[in-house]
Batch of 2 targets.
Target 1
Amino acid sequence: MKSFHFELLHRSKKSRARVGRIHTPHGVIDTPNFVAVGTNGTVKALNNADLHDIGLQLMFCNTYHLILQPGTHVVRKAGGLHHFIHRKLPIITDSGGFQVFSLAYGSIADELKGKGTKKQGGSVLKISEEGVLFRSYRDGAKVMLTPESSIQAQKDLGADIIIPFDELPPYHIAPGALKKSLERTHRWEKRSLEEHLKNPQGQAMYAVIHGGVDPTLRKESCSFLTDLPFNGFAIGGSVGKTKEEMHEMLSFVLPLLPEDKPNHLLGIGDLPSLERSIPLGIDTFDSSYPTRAARHGILLTAQGGVNITKADNAEKFAPIEEGCGCPTCSRFTLAYLHHLFKARELTSMSLATVHNLYFIIKLMEKYREGIREGTI
C-alpha cells in the first residue's frame, strides 16, 4: 500500500497560492482541487462510475449518516467504503462532529448567508466531555459519538483521509463559551489521534483548526494542533458571518500552518470563495454547492449560471457551453435538458450534476495552470 504524503510542486510569486500533489493509497489528488460531497456514499443523482469518468479525484463521505444507514459494520463487512460504493479513487470522511453544529444551528454556508443564528430542534441531546449524544433523524434512536467511536467508525469505512472528532460552535457563541469549546475540541482531537495511531491502517488524519473568528483562539488552535503528528490540517468551525470576515480569518490562519503538509477548507466551495481563497494557499475545498445547484436547474458556465428551467431555453439546440467536453454537453442540448426539468424527469438532475462537477474540475485545472504561469 502506498503511503500518504504531500508533494509541493510550485509556489506562486504573486500570492501564497501553490500547486501540489497529495499521494494516497488510492491515488493522487492534484492541488488546489475541489472535493464533491457524497454524504451517503454517493453524490446525489450520480453513481460512482460517473465520478470516475469525469475525473473527480477526491470524494467526501459523511460518517454520521453512514453510522445510521447502513451502519459502518456493514461497510466493513463489504470490504470498506471503496469496495462498498465501487470507487477506486481517494475518499475523505468527516468525524460526525459536524452534526453537533449543523443539526443544531444549520450549516457553515448558512452562516455566510446570514442564517444559522437560532438553535433548531432537538437532534443534539447532550454535549459532554465524553462526546455528543444525538437523536437519530431516521428513527429517533439515541446515538452516542465519542472521539474513540468516531475513529473506529472511520476505521470501518477505511477512507484515505479521516477527521478527528470536534465540536463546531456557531458564530454567535459567547467568547467564554467559545474558548471552553476550543479547549474541549483540542482534547477530543488529541484522543482521536491517539485512537487512530493504535491502528493507522494506511489512513491519514487531518486536524481541524478551530477558534471562530477570534485571531487569538485561531492562533492557539494552530499552535496546539501543529505540535501533534497530524498528516494535514483542515480549517473548520465558524468561518465568519460574511465572506470578508472569512477572507480575513483565512489570511491570518494559513501562514500559521506547516507548508510541508496539505490543508483543507471545510464546507466552503462556491465559486467566489474559490477565487478568493486559492491565492491564500488553500489546497482542497469541499462543498455541495455545484451538485445542489444542478438539482435546482442552475448550470455553471464561464459566463455565469444558466437557469435551464427558463422558457428561453426551450428551443436552444446547442450544448450548455460550447467546447465544454463533459458527457452532458457532448450529447445533449439545452432544449432537451429544459424539457427534462420541466417534465420533472430524474435524468435531468443526473445530466446537470455531471456538467456542474465537470465544470468545476476543469476550473480547478485552470487555477493550477494559472498558479504555474504566475497569473494567480
Target 2
Amino acid sequence: MTEEATARATLAAYYAAFNAGDAEGMLAQVTDDIEHRVNEGDIRRGRALFAAFCAHMGVSYRETLRDLVIYANPEGTRGAAEFVVHGNYLKTDPGLPEARGQTYVLPAGGFFDLRDGKICRVTTFYNLSDWVRQVSL
C-alpha cells in the first residue's frame, strides 16, 4: 500500500468510527501526542484531552457525516476531508444555545497531519454562526 493509500485508509477508519459513535475506534487512529484544533476553540494536545472531547461530544451531540470525500498527499503526511454533518443537539454546551434535540445540517471539513500511518493533527472547520442559527430556530 502506498503512503497516500495508507493515509486515506487511516482517515476513512477515523470517520467510520466517528459515524459509528466509536470513540475508541477514533482514538486507535491518532498518535499519543495528537494535536486537536477545534473550530473557533482551544488547541487540545494529547490523547487524554482528545478522548475527553470525544466523550463530551457523544453526550451533547449525535452526528452522522455524509457525502464524505477524503484527500491525501502522495507522501501520506497530509490529508483533508469534506463532508456534511447531519446532527441532533442533545445536551446544552456552555455558552451555546439551549439544547432541545434540534436537528442541523452543516457543511464541514477537516485537515490532518499524519505520521507513521496515524493522525497527529486534526483541524476541524465549520460555520459556527450557521449552526447557531439552525439550533436557535
